[in-house]
């Protein structure tokens, strides 16, 4: 994952001109694909709308950079804006579709078979999770958010996120036939 200097991003965005254009490009390059995966956690967000909604979220975040407080997690702040964008649209749509998690593990044919098998089993487990737990899993396991950052993003206490992670792990272990 590409890291972004949050304070530098904010300073460049507020400077305007070419620096602002470069700042937006850095923001886009660092978060666009990640937010597309996150958007898939919102069942009511039609796949045809995901790219547009991710674009809108990034534009909103860029325009709101003046309100961002360096020292706080840029990831959590940005994902909160995206979560609000996606949730607004899903509330309007009132329908849902499952998360498709793609795992990228290069290798030989045996490894590819194992990867596909593991990915299929993970998709099956993710499909059994409710929307909140699916979003927590996406942020904590795919995006490597801390429980505090995931909580900020989803509007939940960090302790609740930690508890839900333990429940998710137990469900996954049971479904995958592993010891918890």
Describe this entry's structure for a reader.
With 180 residues, this protein is mainly α. The chain has 2 domains: 1-97, RNA polymerase sigma factor, region 2, helix turn helix motif (Rna Polymerase Sigma Factor, Chain: A, Orthogonal Bundle), CATH 1.10.1740; 98-180, Orthogonal Bundle (Arc Repressor Mutant, subunit A). The chain has 8 helices and no strands. The protein is elongated. Mean pLDDT is 80; it is low at 95-108.
Q: Any descriptors?
A:
Arc Repressor Mutant, subunit A, 2 domains, mainly alpha, Rna Polymerase Sigma Factor, Chain: A, single chain, 8 helices, 180 residues
Question: What quaternary form is this?
Answer: single chain
Strand residue percentage: under 5%
Say which CATH homologous superfamily of the largest domain is assigned: RNA polymerase sigma factor, region 2, helix turn helix motif
Our Rg estimate from Cα atoms comes to 17 Å
What is the mean pLDDT? 80
Helix content: over 70%
**Number of DSSP strand runs:** 0
Alpha carbon gap, first and last residue: 29 Å
